[in-house]
Design goal:
single chain, 248 residues, alpha+beta, four-stranded mixed β-sheet, 49% helix, binds S-(P-nitrobenzyl)glutathione
Length: 248
């Protein structure tokens, strides 16, 4: 009892600063040590390439929640040497550090940050619906990534033609939900993910939202959130290419 703990140790992304209070518990006739921890937010650290790529939504969400983000940019040359790749759990970036927690997989990062900052629904059912929405955003993102990296020149026209079929369900969901968000009455990580993807799709096909009023107003509304707006107008963020091969 009453062990002193290392105040520099972190737990779950929080810096633990122990304050030890000794409180007598009379029924035990002995002293009991109560450790009270004051939690201080540690900044998030993101390691990734100098592209928006799979981190646009995460950056917007962190900005919206006023979270500090430290970025380690990896160049192609550094990546090509293989050491960083070998250090990544699944051989890929991005990597997010939150105190002692190290995460790979961009959607796991969105969930983690969403869970911590109240962007993962107000109960289990909402959380499951948000997961479902995010999985559907991921389905469309994978189609987009395939187009960009594998078949841009041959597949762009067909992709744009088919895009309305994929956007339609999201438009209907947003139109049906009075809040204008995908689920419930609060923005969730799936909203940020959809928003980021829609911005990319608008670059690919500037008119793609024209027949989807709910999606259009969703983009306008999310773009106008003050901290998101500030990030979108930030020069460093603006100059990041969307993708790694110059196609967009
Ligand atoms: N499912 C994973 C996730 O969601 O995080 C997918 C991660 C992923 O595809 N990572 C890519 C990667 O690490 C980078 S994102 N590629 C290197 C490798 O596999 O060795 C897409 C991407 C590709 C290329 C660049 N680029 O050249 O700058 C940037 C981004």
């Amino acid at each position: 009892m009453g062990r002193e703990r290392d105040s520099t140790k972190t737990e779950g992304g929080f810096i633990k600063e122990p304050r030890v209070a000794r409180t007598p518990l009379h029924f035990r006739r002995s002293a009991c040590t109560v450790e009270i921890y004051y939690y201080t937010m540690a900044p998030y650290t993101l390691t990734y390439f100098a592209v928006k790529g799979r981190c646009g939504a995460l950056k917007m969400m962190l900005a919206d929640y006023g979270q500090e983000l430290k970025e380690n940019l990896v160049t192609f040359d550094e990546w090509g040497k293989g050491e960083i790749k070998a250090s990544c759990l699944f051989g890929q970036l991005p990597k997010l550090q939150d105190g002692d927690l190290v995460l790979f997989q961009s959607n796991a990062m969105l969930r983690h940050v969403g869970r911590k900052h109240g962007a993962y629904g107000k109960n289990d059912c909402e959380a499951s619906l948000i997961d479902m929405m995010n999985d559907s955003v991921e389905d469309l993102r994978l189609k987009y990534i395939k187009l960009i990296y594998q078949e841009y020149d041959t597949g762009k026209e067909a992709f744009i033609k088919d895009l309305a079929n994929h956007l339609k369900p999201f438009d209907a969901i947003l139109a049906k939900n009075k809040s204008g968000f995908l689920v419930g009455d609060k923005i969730s990580f799936a909203d940020f993910n959809l928003f980021d993807l829609l911005l990319n799709l608008k670059v690919l096909s500037p008119t793609c939202l024209d027949s989807f009023p709910a999606l259009k107003s969703f983009v306008e509304k999310t773009s106008a959130r003050p901290k998101v707006k500030a990030l979108l107008e930030n020069d460093d963020f603006k100059k990041l290419p969307i993708n790694g091969n110059g196609k967009q």
